[in-house]
């Protein structure tokens, strides 16, 4: 599409934006694979909430299709514990695949500050 700024016409390429987003997502997936190899990872809602309450979590990834009630609970616990909550761009199936698992997962927690 075209946009006029200060008399100049700027043409925005949607394909270029898609390529940038895709490469950023691939970068996140590569970093997730490295962290998964370290073995210091918690997957799942129950385990994530336990690690947050115990103060072991440093970062939490939440998939796009996480139910709103669970997401609000995780946000609240992370706010109390001053833990980063990052949204994952894909669904729970995409997050499970990025973690190298054959099943879906809603939440991903990295307990080690070195890995996050």
Largest sheet: 4 strands, mixed
Poorly predicted residue ranges: none
Could you tell me the mean pLDDT?
Answer: 76
> What percent strand?
15-25%
Helix-strand category: alpha+beta
Specify Rg, calculated over alpha carbons. 17 Å
The helix/strand series, from N terminus to C terminus, equals EEHEHEHEHE
Report the strand count.
Answer: 6
The rough form would be described as globular
How many angstroms separate the termini? 37 Å
Give me some keywords for this one:
116 residues, four-stranded mixed beta sheet, alpha+beta
What would you say this structure looks like, in words?
By secondary structure, the chain is of the alpha+beta class. Helix content is 47%, strand content 19%. It contains four helices and six strands, in the order ββαβαβαβαβ. A four-stranded mixed sheet has the order 3-6-4-5, with helices on one face. The chain has a two-stranded antiparallel sheet with strand order 1-2. α2 runs parallel beside α3.
Write a compact overview of the structure shown.
The protein is an alpha+beta fold and 116 residues long.
Give the arrangement of secondary structure elements.
Blueprint (H helix, E strand, L loop, with lengths): L1 E4 L2 E4 L2 H25 L3 E2 L1 H9 L5 E4 L5 H14 L2 E4 L4 H7 L8 E4 L6
Parallel strand pairs: 4-5
Antiparallel strand pairs: 1-2, 3-6, 4-6
Helix pairs in contact: 2-3
């Amino acid at each position: 599409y075209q946009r006029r700024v200060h008399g100049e016409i700027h043409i925005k390429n949607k394909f270029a934006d898609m390529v940038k987003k895709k490469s950023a997502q691939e970068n996140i997936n590569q970093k997730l694979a490295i962290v998964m190899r370290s073995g210091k990872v918690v997957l799942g809602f129950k385990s994530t909430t336990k690690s947050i309450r115990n103060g072991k979590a440093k970062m939490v990834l939440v998939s796009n299709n996480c139910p709103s009630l669970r997401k609000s609970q995780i946000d609240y616990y992370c706010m109390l514990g001053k833990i980063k909550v990052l949204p994952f761009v894909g669904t729970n199936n995409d997050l499970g695949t990025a973690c190298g698992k054959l099943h879906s997962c809603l939440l991903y927690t990295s307990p080690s500050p070195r890995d996050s």
